Amino acid sequence: MPEDELSRSSHSNPGKSLANGIKTNPASSSPKSNLSVPMGPPVYVDLAYIPNHCSGKNTDPEFFKRVRASYYVVSGNDAANGEPSRAVLDALLEGKSQWGENVQVTLIPTHDTEVTREWYQQTHEKQQELNIMVLASSSTVVMQDESFPACKIEF
């Protein structure tokens, strides 16, 4: 586009600009804008760590539709910050229901929290329907001055 056309274009559309050939409106640009991410095939992994201590800030049903794991690790243990998030655990059920295949999934909580216990009890029937198992461990590892629960996973 010639320079004079470019300048006219930007003057006739104040507040809009071109970024990589796409018209954008800086006033509506925000970190949580509605940018659509192109769909691609799901990613299959053996083990996935649910991001951000299972906080609802970064994980939604789309995560579980796209990242299909045999094992998901839930590490949240901060109720004051909503970790683990009940919404994320529910998103696992919603995302897994979209897979179209009945693959066994194991959820591994690293802490025994009220949120995970309530979710487990209230959604147990749905978990069974979707072939989701929640791994509880009574094993404890003791190292120097600390002890913590542990789970053994074999692939």
From TrEMBL:
<dbReference type="GO" id="GO:0008017">
    <property type="term" value="F:microtubule binding"/>
</dbReference>
<dbReference type="GO" id="GO:0005829">
    <property type="term" value="C:cytosol"/>
</dbReference>
<dbReference type="GO" id="GO:0045202">
    <property type="term" value="C:synapse"/>
</dbReference>
<feature type="compositionally biased region" description="Polar residues">
    <location>
        <begin position="22"/>
        <end position="36"/>
    </location>
</feature>
<dbReference type="GO" id="GO:0005874">
    <property type="term" value="C:microtubule"/>
</dbReference>
<dbReference type="GO" id="GO:0043025">
    <property type="term" value="C:neuronal cell body"/>
</dbReference>
<dbReference type="GO" id="GO:0031114">
    <property type="term" value="P:regulation of microtubule depolymerization"/>
</dbReference>
<dbReference type="GO" id="GO:0003779">
    <property type="term" value="F:actin binding"/>
</dbReference>
<dbReference type="GO" id="GO:0007409">
    <property type="term" value="P:axonogenesis"/>
</dbReference>
<feature type="region of interest" description="Disordered">
    <location>
        <begin position="1"/>
        <end position="37"/>
    </location>
</feature>
<dbReference type="InterPro" id="IPR026074">
    <property type="entry name" value="MAP1"/>
</dbReference>
<dbReference type="GO" id="GO:0005875">
    <property type="term" value="C:microtubule associated complex"/>
</dbReference>
<dbReference type="GO" id="GO:0000226">
    <property type="term" value="P:microtubule cytoskeleton organization"/>
</dbReference>
<protein>
    <submittedName>
        <fullName>MAP1A protein</fullName>
    </submittedName>
</protein>
<dbReference type="GO" id="GO:0016358">
    <property type="term" value="P:dendrite development"/>
</dbReference>
<dbReference type="InterPro" id="IPR036866">
    <property type="entry name" value="RibonucZ/Hydroxyglut_hydro"/>
</dbReference>
<dbReference type="GO" id="GO:0030425">
    <property type="term" value="C:dendrite"/>
</dbReference>
